[in-house]
Amino acid sequence: MAKNKKINYVYAVGRRKSASARVRLYKGKGESTVNGFPVKKYFGYAMDQAAWAKPFGVLDVSDKYYVTVKVAGGGKSGQLEAIVHGISRALAKENKEKFRPALKKAGLLTRDSRVRERRKVGTGGKARRKKQSPKR
Could you give the CA distance from residue 121 to residue 86 in angstroms, rounded to a whole number? Predict the structure, then answer.
């Protein structure tokens, strides 16, 4: 007989460009991790850490929750934005009436759908560049 484990977290997915972040939001105090590394190690720059903490800062709940994140695809910038989107979605699920309006107003729940444009044939390696034609 299978034992049912009690799920004590809120799950959400955040996406940006080709990056996808699976976020688990836990109540209480703990260390937030990204792919098994502490956030400060994974995102070394102060600007990145400020962006990462934005959903918690908007709601003023930084000491009440922590997250574990698995992120894949894209570069560091896309991954960071995917994580912020996933954390915002998880917080909105956690307390719809209280958290959702503030996150929506800050623009953190909107999925940024802009992705890299594919390169076209005959453009010399770029998406929109045209090859120069001879003058005479």
Answer: 36
- The candidate with the shortest Cα–Cα distance to 72, out of 40, 104, 124, 34, is 34
The structural domains of the chain, with segments of one domain joined by +, span: 9-105
The tokens describing 95, both together, are 């307390």
Could you say which residues of the chain have pLDDT below 70? 1-4, 136
114: tokens are 């802009």
82, 90 contact by CB (below 8 A): no
For the segment 88-108, what is each residue's pLDDT rounded down to a tens digit?
999 999 999 999 999 999 999
3-state secondary structure of 80: helix
Rg (the chain; Cα; Å): 19
Token readout for 14 is 């955040």
CA 62/CA 15 separation, integer angstroms: 22
Tokens at 17, concatenated: 């460009």
Q: Which CATH fold would you assign to the domain 9-105? A: Ribosomal Protein S5; domain 2 (3.30.230)
